[in-house]
Amino acid sequence: MRLSTSAVFCLLGLLPCDRVIDAAPPPKANVIVIFADDLGYGDLGCYGSPTIRTPHLDRMAAEGLRFTDFYSASEVCTPSRAALLTGRYPIRSGMCGNRRVLFPSSKGGLPPEEITIAEALRDQGYATAHVGKWHLGIHEGSRPLDQGFQHSFGLPYSNDMDARSDLPRGATGSPNPPQDGWNVPLIRDGKIVEQPADQTTLTKRYTKEAVQFIRQQKDGSFFLYFAHTFPHVPMFASPAFKGKSRAGIYGDAVEELDWSVGQVLDALRTEGIADRTLVVFTSDNGPWLIMGDQGGSAGLLRDGKGSTWEGGMRVPGIAWMPGRIKPSVTSQRAGTLDLLPSALAIAGAPLPDKVPLDGVDLAPLLFAAQPLVERPYFYYRGDQIFACRLGEWKAHFKTQTGYGQPQAETHDPPLLFHLGRDASEKRNVAAAHADVLAEIQQAVKLHQSTIVPGVPQLQ
Amino acid sequence: MRLSTSAVFCLLGLLPCDRVIDAAPPPKANVIVIFADDLGYGDLGCYGSPTIRTPHLDRMAAEGLRFTDFYSASEVCTPSRAALLTGRYPIRSGMCGNRRVLFPSSKGGLPPEEITIAEALRDQGYATAHVGKWHLGIHEGSRPLDQGFQHSFGLPYSNDMDARSDLPRGATGSPNPPQDGWNVPLIRDGKIVEQPADQTTLTKRYTKEAVQFIRQQKDGSFFLYFAHTFPHVPMFASPAFKGKSRAGIYGDAVEELDWSVGQVLDALRTEGIADRTLVVFTSDNGPWLIMGDQGGSAGLLRDGKGSTWEGGMRVPGIAWMPGRIKPSVTSQRAGTLDLLPSALAIAGAPLPDKVPLDGVDLAPLLFAAQPLVERPYFYYRGDQIFACRLGEWKAHFKTQTGYGQPQAETHDPPLLFHLGRDASEKRNVAAAHADVLAEIQQAVKLHQSTIVPGVPQLQ
């Protein structure tokens, strides 16, 4: 039996049932998305890291639903974030292109007409906050307060941007002073409050902000988009974490991020709202492998950030709502594109009208362990489809390593891998499966027929 | 405060304390070693496999101590097994050499004068049993019953040996009949009971035998060495598991192995002896990467079986004894060489006299979370030291891929990797750490001065 989302929610008490008429309706469930930056598939204990200790995320996974096949919607930062907040492949919003991400000099940004999770939930009476990195535009119409967030505290873009060449760059993590050369501003509700931001205490200050917001909004419904700055380079950790991990400064930064997740979940427990708050933890793309000791690991997956091999786009994904989500591991394929439909379903909000969406509502999987409908997944690099997954099969039409391979290689016939038997994409079996390739090519064609590219924003 | 092992055991009730004089001494703790064949570091859920489901091993890990840095004592089968049972690098017993492993035509085997865990515990009144693969010799003096085991049921060597060329080999897992061409005998207490062994039901029959032994011996003390045949090629799974995993026949075999572990632990729980039975699960070496869909994964570690890169020798390692071992994850470096000293300490048995041992007693770590003494670890390939680990540092003097690279490459100066910051051994930092290299070379020299090579057995 397949239950409708609203029926599931009604049974679970997440949505008011009609027969509950003699009491004020309970507040709708809260939604928190915790988004790491450049964290790899293999960088958490519960995903097999031998060197980085992440007890809080491991506990979150043990208490919640851990996805083995969770995808970001892009292999780099800006498009991935646009997709998460809109539930749409970045090609639709114009938030992708040859320049890969937004830079401080870019004129574009997330178009005002795009509907974000924050806008949709705000319209349902949710309090909304953005904490952390933005990277979806610094001009009017694209900024956090323009895109549905009532509160915003964080960096406008990546922490390696806006560096001042007149300042000595210094070694990352150099204590004297630690932010040498880096000049990214820290912004609260549109106003710069510190420049350069002291990156050694960013995770701590973000966390304080997030916990404060949770405490203030505990009696109502809220949406918190908590997009960490780390473990993106340059890597910093506060004194309590610096030099403490086995894995160097990268490990220190991830262990502090893990601590931060623990603080957020503890606040929910303490306030007694854990069982009506969906928390999703994930990453914007795979690890930045060229960064040496400051880059993470995709575990057994091939390649990393910037590539459409699995390591570039398959990321940790954990959903938590104790008492509502049963502790489990799932191999159902899901991703950040699904967060908007899921959040809106939880809030009882209507889906945006006449806007093509690319995700599905995960609620039946999260709350009733029902399998998701089979659907293809498209690996975009910029505005091009490089690969497509259908079931366990993945076809690559083009490949290019994360950073370093100057040009993409085109494959005709495409490469074909079975991600179940060959998670590391080592054995091309295209020759034996022409039927699968044909099916995938058909799916790509169908998808492309629905695409009206947005005005390119990453110029 | 560092407690002696006997003091720890006394406190824990694992050994009789002198003042307990008015009652029969409780039976000494049992020891079970479950040994997988060619299982890779990345092949279990709790070590990050996205495709193989291992709920029983995951539970064992969650209830016990999971090692991130657990090593087999060789990169291939026979030497690894000799080292586990004797607590000595294979060079000392002669159980290594250019031929890598024993073959059915080999004249050698584990020398009778070697002292195995089974012999030492039998002398303490333990019942002893071997179930599964042996691969330490088929001639008098080397067989299970000659080496301290009172019961033995299993294969004399690998399941791909002894193939009969007059039989069609057939595809592995071919149902008609499944063992086409493979001709390995199944032996009980020295007598062939089936040839060819029906490999589709081996794991099931091994498990039945192991559980039966546990039930029979539940009131005394026992040592069970349960050395699985799988996931060594050719891969088989029983009908209940075949075709059930995401990861093809390899995943099916590992999932059946996981089921088997669950059966053993359940028997201990049911018989009420879980809290006085130490169970250690590990693998003889890394995954056989050249086997395609029938090979496993070393996760983020480099290379696999046959090589002294981490993927060849670092393996899953889980220790379980509910109520005695606290649930935790440890990055302390340990390995199969430590099992003999640990088992003997648990049994209150004296260490073999005048025999150089290469392991340490893990009891202080297992039962009291005390760190182990820092000591170097030597990666042998055959009778040569290819690499050495000291703390987080690993130096390679020679490297050779698992199977395929025809000759070893010599490195002078050696390659140097930091396994904390670079678990995948990607970034050679030898140039910046001459002092570390010198210290490692000193450790190798000291170790070599203690080595009296045994008479070569693998001719």
TrEMBL record, chains A, B:
Pfam families: Sulfatase, Sulfatase_C. Its cofactor is Ca(2+). It is an enzyme of class 3 (hydrolase). The keyword Hydrolase applies. Gene3D superfamilies: 3.30.1120.10, Alkaline Phosphatase, subunit A. Residues 30-348 form the Sulfatase N-terminal domain. Its EC number is 3.1.6.1. It comes from the Bacteria. Keywords: Calcium, Glycoprotein, Hydrolase, Metal-binding, Signal. One of its GO terms (molecular function) is arylsulfatase activity. Residues 164-185 are annotated as: Disordered. Belongs to the sulfatase family. This is Arylsulfatase. It comes from Anatilimnocola aggregata.
